[in-house]
């Protein structure tokens, strides 16, 4: 993937991508400035590719550790227990209860490794046209991993009727309707789930007999992934069944479930304030904002309220600013973007300096 990104990026783009994806700076704000024609959207796609792939790899490796842990237990190979917490050593003194509680909270409480979350990336822009442009580029160019090209699990929030037919299939409304049309598949999903449980039990029994092996790990990982997918479908279709049985048109729960499962969400800045975001259980990790200089500061703050650890602002303060009609607001510099404010505070900026037009 690094070879692919390097082959399609110039030096300034690579510096910008590295600044946004630097694993030593997993929190905070990154500013990427690019005049027209310098490949800002291409840089966004490369950043998305790198972040999505690395975060998914971390999730995959953590799941693999869980599978190995379970197989080790099934095979009778004990896992090394965590070191006990020392609450009586000399480093504690009278009244140091806060330190003791802190150490207890940090100590492992279970032997099974923790599964890391899947990628949760929100991409925003001030206009629907800008958002749709990014969606279309993702669908056309796709992302890349070690096995080739892939399309991430993504959702575009917006009216499907106002989108190009190619983009319509990833809109939230379209996916809700697709689920509503699958109401009759619930029993089939339950049957498949039971079959997968039986398959998992068989593999666990085989592990007890012959011990853990690489082939068993691969098969268990495959079954676990399939169970997760079928369980997700069952939960969704149970909600669909409830909606249809009650003749209820309220699909908010279904929308929330879809958004919770999506790894990449694309929407306008204003739509990032919709109620469906407040109901999410899986929080957003990274926010990428395109055309960040064409939005007032308050507009950019909307997606940042979702609690992301990292924000990447992409734009060009030399282009047209946000449109502000009020003269009093203009006098108060309301049209200034967060990008410009941070630049005025000497925040580092990665500049794209190669022109392709």
TrEMBL record:
Molecular function GO labels: helicase activity
Subcellular localization: Plastid, Chloroplast
Entry superkingdom: Eukaryota
Coiled-coil stretches noted in the UniProt entry, renumbered to this chain: none
DNA2/NAM7 helicase helicase domain residues: 9-327
A Pfam family of this chain: AAA_11
GO cellular component: chloroplast
InterPro entries: DNA2/NAM7-like (IPR045055), DNA2/NAM7_AAA_11 (IPR041677), P-loop_NTPase (IPR027417)
Main location as per UniProt: plastid
Signal sequence region: none
PANTHER family (alphabetical): DNA2/NAM7 HELICASE FAMILY, HELICASE SENATAXIN ISOFORM X1-RELATED
Name this protein carries in UniProt: DNA2/NAM7 helicase helicase domain-containing protein
Organism: Hanusia phi
């Amino acid at each position: 993937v690094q070879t692919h990104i390097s082959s399609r990026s110039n030096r300034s783009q690579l510096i910008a991508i590295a600044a946004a994806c630097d694993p030593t700076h997993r929190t905070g704000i990154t500013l990427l400035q690019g005049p027209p024609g310098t490949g800002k959207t291409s840089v966004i796609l490369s950043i998305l590719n790198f972040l999505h792939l690395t975060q998914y790899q971390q999730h995959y490796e953590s799941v693999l550790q869980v599978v190995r842990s379970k197989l080790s237990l099934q095979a009778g190979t004990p896992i090394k227990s965590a070191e006990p917490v020392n609450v009586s050593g000399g480093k504690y003194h009278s009244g140091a209860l806060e330190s003791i509680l802190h150490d207890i909270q940090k100590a492992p409480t279970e032997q099974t490794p923790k599964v890391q979350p899947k990628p949760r990336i929100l991409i925003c822009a001030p206009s629907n046209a800008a958002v749709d442009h990014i969606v279309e580029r993702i669908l056309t160019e796709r992302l890349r991993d070690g096995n080739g090209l892939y399309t991430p699990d993504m959702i575009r929030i917006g009216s499907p009727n106002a989108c190009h037919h190619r983009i319509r299939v990833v809109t939230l409304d379209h996916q809700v309707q697709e689920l509503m049309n699958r109401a009759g598949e619930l029993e089939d999903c339950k049957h498949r789930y039971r079959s997968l449980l039986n398959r998992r039990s068989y593999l666990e029994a085989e592990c007890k007999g012959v011990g853990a092996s690489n082939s068993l790990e691969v098969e268990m990982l495959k079954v676990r992934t399939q169970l997760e997918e079928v369980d997700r479908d069952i939960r969704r279709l149970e909600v669909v069944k409830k909606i249809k049985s009650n003749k209820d048109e309220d699909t908010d729960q279904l929308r929330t479930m879809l958004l919770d499962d999506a790894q990449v969400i694309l929407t306008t800045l204003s739509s990032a304030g919709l109620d469906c975001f407040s109901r999410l259980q899986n929080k957003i990790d990274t926010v990428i904002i395109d055309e960040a200089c064409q939005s007032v500061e308050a507009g950019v703050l909307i997606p940042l309220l979702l609690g992301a650890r990292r924000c990447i602002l992409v734009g060009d303060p030399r282009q047209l600013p946000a449109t502000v009609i009020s003269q009093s607001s203009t006098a108060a510099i309301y049209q200034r973007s967060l990008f410009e404010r941070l630049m005025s505070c000497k925040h580092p900026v990665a500049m794209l300096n190669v022109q392709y037009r």
